[in-house]
Amino acid sequence: MPVFGRLETEAAAKAPAHKFHEVNSKRIHETAKICPKYFQKIDLKEGEWGGEGSVTCWYFVIDGKAVMSREILEKVDNENQSVTYNVIGGVLKEIYQSFKFIVQAIPKDKGTLIYEKLNVDVPDPNAMLQFGIDVTAEIDAFLI
């Protein structure tokens, strides 16, 4: 039986929301340079940087472990300053049937994780949520 979950957070940011949205949508390729502590590299596999339907591989460190996540940029909503990434491969697909990141740049950066566990023993992705908060702080420091 599928076990669905949703985690949300807000992270305070000093930089303008439109700058955050720009990094999350159009300047994705710069994320590894902005946050070298968290990201080793981001490779474009299909499409164009920031284009809906583009596929990227994100190489990052979480809980001290180097991992990869293959994601499709599912939706860019410039009006609401949000992006939706759907995980299609890598470490998260090993334990979650489905996994999405939704990042909305509002006066606070809002992050939502929507996921379906493979089974009831799989933990909630609290480490990924904290990772998002930490990356937001790093991007904010860069932008200001």
Automatic annotation (TrEMBL):
GO biological process, one term: defense response
SUPFAM superfamilies in the record: Bet v1-like (SSF55961)
Domain Bet v I/Major latex protein: residue ranges: 2-144
One Pfam family per UniProt: Bet_v_1
Protein name, entry field: Bet v I/Major latex protein domain-containing protein
Organism: Castanea mollissima
